[in-house]
Amino acid sequence: MRVLSGVQPSGTLHIGNFFGAIRQFVALQSEHECYYFLADMHALTTVQDAGRMRSLVRELAAGYLALGLDPARSVLYRQSDLPEIPELTWYLSTVTSMGLLQRCHSFKDKVAQGVVPNHGLFAYPVLMAADILIVRSDLVPVGKDQKQHLEVTRDIAASFHAVYGREIFTLPEPLIQDDVAVVPGIDGLKMSKSYGNTIDIFGPEKPIRKRIMSLVTDSTPVEDPKPREGSALYQLLKIFAPVEERPWVEGAFDNGGVGYGEMKKKLFEYFLATFGAARSRYDELMADPAEVDRILLAGAARARETVAPLMDDVRRAVGIR
Ligand code: TYM
Questions:
Q1: pLDDT, tens digit, for every residue of 89-110?
Q2: Which residues line ligand 1 (CB under 6 A)?
Q3: Which CATH number fits domain 202-283: 1.10.240.10, 3.40.50.720, 3.40.47.10, 3.40.50.450?
Q4: Which of 137, 168, 260, 285 has its CA 20 to 30 A from that of 85?
């Protein structure tokens, strides 16, 4: 099967990105034909500073590689290196109804947060549909927040087929891991770059430790059992704890006697055990930008070969070229 997914370089990689998406990207590499890209054109809807954009792209590329995406097994590329993607976006735009985009939660959420929406933000799901449809992907591993965008992608493909009377695209299925579909942030809301509640994977240890120690908890005294329901700390411990440590986590909540501070220290230990090796690798990759660039350009060349026949079909279907 063909797998595709992407991450926006709109901030530093956080553990929600990893458990919700990138961990699945890595696992799928051994069995499927995988395409993973950096959605830099999407990130332009929020990051509008060239220097920052360049460094975020570099960091995300190093993060992908450090976390185990392997250019020998997967095609890794930058969205902006495939001019076919904005071309397809336009063809798809002309068969997409305004109402479909107006119903999108992520757009409505951003507006509710006070973001003054630009047209790019409104049209975001069409660009995403182009990313997915252009490689004829069957499966798209994502967190739950992207589920509606996958439905929109299928609707747009179906609409193109209805308008032009030809079945060109593969209708993709989302692949969502239920237990980590929504990783909570330090305030208990969905972890998100735009909410400022993330625990980052890379970068200096001290601020990460501080973030973990500032996870919001209730005021249950140390000696009492702690409520699991609605506890972001509990959810994160469950996600991180190795199998043999899970009884300790359950016991710490159910039996009492363990304070939240101690649990947070444990969470930080699990964090370092999970990401220690990737964090060292990341520092090496950040010191070798030429190698990272080479990998992305080679990936883009492979991706362009894949998309060429589909783009020919699409152009023929719409009567252009
Ligand atoms: P982005 O960059 O916001 O996030 C990247 C991936 O991380 C997942 N994720 C989470 N999963 C669980 N819990 C969380 N708190 C959490 N936060 C983020 C996201 O669901 C996503 O899978 N629109 C996409 C990028 C994109 C894309 C695509 C994805 C552009 N084109 C084509 C798939 C296919 C986005 O903004 O993801």
A1: 999 999 999 999 999 999 998 8
A2: 5-8, 16-17, 20-21, 39, 42, 128, 131-132, 140, 142-143, 145-146, 149, 182-183, 190-192
A3: 1.10.240.10
A4: 285
